[in-house]
Specification:
The chain is mainly alpha-helical and 45 residues long. It has 1 helix and no strands. The protein has one helix at residues 2-24. The chain is rod-shaped and about 70 Å long. The N and C termini lie far apart (69 Å).
């Protein structure tokens, strides 16, 4: 019984670790802002 509980806890920790890793690994400042396609101003040199 103890082995089943330990195995379930290990699987839960592994699942939470994978979700945490995929949620918070990425760009340091977060996602880039979306580019607006209807912006009529020309780019500055």
């Amino acid at each position: 019984m103890t082995l089943i509980i330990l195995e379930a806890l290990g699987a839960g920790v592994l699942l939470v670790g994978i979700v945490w890793w995929t949620m918070f690994s990425g760009r340091k400042n977060g996602e880039l802002p979306p580019q607006s396609s209807n912006d009529e101003t020309p780019p500055k040199p």
